[in-house]
Design a protein that fits this description.
The complex is a heterodimer of chains A (about 240) and B (about 325). Chain A has helices at about 5-20, 20-45, 50-80, 80-90, 95-110, 115-125, 130-155, 160-175, 190-195, 195-210, 215-245. By secondary structure, chain A is mainly alpha-helical. Chain A has one domain (about 5-240). Chain A is globular and about 55 Å long. With about 325 residues, chain B is of the alpha/beta class. Chain B folds into two domains: about 10-230, 3-Layer(aba) Sandwich (Rossmann fold); about 235-300, Alpha-Beta Plaits (2-Layer Sandwich). Helices cover about 35% and strands about 25% of the residues of chain B. In chain B, strand 9 (about 210-215) and strand 10 form a beta hairpin. In chain B, helix 2 (about 100-110) packs across helix 3 (about 115-130). The longest helix of chain B has 16 residues, at about 175-190. Chain B is globular. The model of chain B has no long low-confidence stretch (mean pLDDT about 90). Classes of the chains: A mainly alpha (about 240), B alpha/beta (about 325). The interface of A and B includes residues 8, 80, 84, 87 and 245 of A. Bound molecules: adenosine-5'-diphosphate and magnesium ion. Magnesium ion (MG) binds near residues 50, 51, 91, 167 and 168 of chain B.
Chain lengths: ~240, ~325
């Protein structure tokens, strides 16, 4: 069994069937730009605030980019029965789910590009540690994709997936320290923040873009990897239980 | 890709297979085995547990109890262990609507690790064999029902699996496509593929299969070669009367008046009468006429598997057919 051929075909098929379609492509540009525009312009307090907002805007773009795609590529295919075909193939489930999420991860990373370019045009880049930003982007995309996978596995309808996914995504906007430090949250909410991978992703972005991280970068990366692994393992376990009744 | 040989003689060996969904006992302790190269039929009405059985055999459902061996490999606890040896044609045509026929087949080949050149060549070969070459570059979503079914079958056999599962391959499609599909199934089997076929068409099972299991409410009520099953019908005599009216009433009255005869109404304008001994037509014709109906024709019918099935399971074949077709139409929408 040539696993490379199988996984490569799944990735290529999803790319052609979903990601490279005009609506999704344009969505991947317009949506992050809209986020960026909304925050950068609204702030109105000069260009200093652009750098302060950039980490949050990037995190939102990546989070929404990855999670929305999974509702289509997984929930929709499951509903139509096409996913059964993949479950019938002699491909280990873990590999199968990685192949189904890798495009969403790449799509999420790509969603970070428009706000970064816009911010660059407005203020220029100085003091940005790219060698830290790039792995951070990838890790945020990975953890968001697995959060999305976790949600997609629980939902059996596309609208359910979208609803559940918003149930996760919108609270994360203020729980994860994207636009204000989590120290400003009520004390009883903070433990929840520390359970969410995006908290560490946002912190790493703040650290690498404007040297204002609250935690050591190694802790951020470590937690992103750990929580991603947990989400993935939990999703695969759920898939075994729910998709193979 | 070379055909992988099957070790041992049993292609499929199932013991005590059981599956419950909530309150529904979908499969209740099923035992059977299918020999290498055999075409084995699973015949039963809608909801009998045919699809659930296939799903457990191929790794889409987890058995509550029982053992499954495919080509000697124990799949009861490791459902993926034999998937490389198996091809599955599900009861719904679930290929990707947005891909062309050709791309769909190539994609399915790739899922089994076939190299690009192999899968493309094989896809073309099958499109040709199924008479779909003209439609190769059209999207699957735009295919007719019969074309969809044929492409779904092609997708199941692209990687040349030694064991093939076919779930109601001809339900709800046009007669010409169904005939073509039956021929293809017979050809595949003749070339050595072991086939497990579910159907609710008795004729189809009789024509294609060497052995048949009758499955009703999750249980196998009978399992034997077609020959042996037919032998049961031999020596029996059946006569069909075409009548002007009152079919149902007549069947009931005749059953009461002539004990020892099995009388069934085939709608309002036909009654069939069967008996272990020869049937005397004269008294029956007079009986019908006395009950206010005319007899247009009395025809002796060749004993068929249908009678055996009806007798063993107590299920009317015509009702079973209609029921399953209705379910299929609903399921395909
Ligand atoms: N996933 C499921 N959840 C609940 N009930 C199911 C499920 N799959 C099948 N059943 C039930 O199990 C029984 C057998 O179904 P099935 O195997 O599809 O029958 P067949 O294929 O012979 O028509 C039916 O009563 C059906 O409603
Ligand atoms: Mg079925």
């Amino acid at each position: 069994m040539n696993l490379r051929v199988a996984l490569g075909s799944i990735i290529a098929k999803d790319l052609r069937a979903y990601y490279l379609k005009p609506p999704h492509l344009s969505w991947g540009v317009i949506f992050p730009l809209a986020w960026a525009g909304m925050f950068f312009i609204r702030s109105g307090s000069g260009l200093d605030s652009v750098a302060a907002l950039l980490p949050g805007v990037i995190a939102v773009s990546v989070l929404f980019g990855t999670t929305s795609m999974l509702a289509v590529t997984i929930t929709f295919e499951r509903k139509s029965g096409a996913l059964d075909r993949l479950l019938l193939a002699p491909i280990p489930l873990e590999w199968l789910m990685l192949a189904k999420t890798v495009n969403a991860i790449a799509f999420g990373v790509a969603n970070a590009v428009p706000p970064i370019l816009l911010a660059g045009c407005l203020t220029g880049f100085s003091g940005v540690a790219w060698e830290e930003v790039i792995p951070t982007l990838v890790l945020i995309a990975v953890s968001s994709a697995f959060t999305g996978l976790f949600v997609a596995v629980t939902a059996s309808e596309v609208f359910e997936a979208q609803m559940f996914s918003n149930f996760f995504r919108f609270p994360m906007l203020f729980l994860c320290g994207l636009f204000f430090p989590i120290q400003q949250l009520p004390a009883w909410l903070r433990p929840l923040s520390y359970c969410l991978p995006l908290t560490y992703g946002a912190d790493a972005l703040h650290a690498s873009i404007r040297q204002s991280g609250q935690m050591p970068l190694s802790l951020d990366f470590g937690m992103l990897i750990l929580l991603s692994a947990l989400l993935f393992a939990f999703s695969v376990r759920n898939i075994r239980r729910r998709w193979i009744p | 890709m070379n055909r992988q040989p099957i070790k041992d003689n049993g292609a499929i060996d199932v013991r005590g297979l059981t599956k419950r969904f909530g309150a529904v006992q979908a499969v209740a302790g099923v035992d059977f085995d299918v020999r290498e190269g055999e075409l084995f039929g699973f015949l039963g009405p809608n909801g009998a547990g045919k699809t659930t059985t296939i799903n457990m055999l191929v790794g889409l459902a987890r058995p509550d109890a029982g053992t499954i061996r495919i080509a000697g490999i124990d799949c009861s606890t490791r459902p993926k262990a034999a998937q490389h040896l198996v091809g599955v044609v599900p009861d719904v045509s679930n290929l990707y609507p947005e891909l062309t026929g050709f791309s769909n087949l190539c994609f399915c080949g790739a899922l089994y690790g076939m190299a690009r050149r192999d899968r493309q060549a094989r896809a073309r070969e099958l499109l040709h064999a199924f008479g779909l070459s003209q439609a190769a570059d059209r999207k699957f979503g735009g295919y007719s029902k019969g074309m969809k079914r044929k492409l779904t079958i092609a997708a199941g056999i692209l990687h040349q699996p030694p064991v093939l599962f076919l779930d109601e391959p001809t339900t709800g499609i046009d007669v010409a496509s169904a005939r073509q599909i039956r021929q293809l199934i017979a050809d595949l089997n003749a070339k050595g593929t072991t086939i497990f076929l579910t159907t609710h068409y008795i004729e189809e099972a009789q024509r294609l299969c060497r052995r048949i299991a009758f499955i009703v409410q999750g249980r196998i009520v009978r399992i034997d070669t077609v020959e042996n099953l037919m032998r049961q019908a031999d020596g029996r005599c059946a006569v069909q009367f075409a009548v002007s009216r009152h079919g149902a009433m007549l069947a009931e009255a005749m059953a009461a008046a002539f004990p020892g005869l099995e009388c069934r109404a085939l709608g309002e304008d036909a009654v069939s009468v069967a008996s272990p001994e020869s049937v005397h037509v004269g008294p029956l014709v007079r009986f019908i006429e006395d009950h206010g109906a005319e007899v247009f024709e009395a025809r002796r019918i060749r004993p068929s598997l249908e009678e055996v099935f009806v007798r063993v399971t107590g299920i009317e074949a015509a009702a079973m057919r209609q029921d399953a077709e209705r379910a299929r139409v609903g399921g395909d929408l």
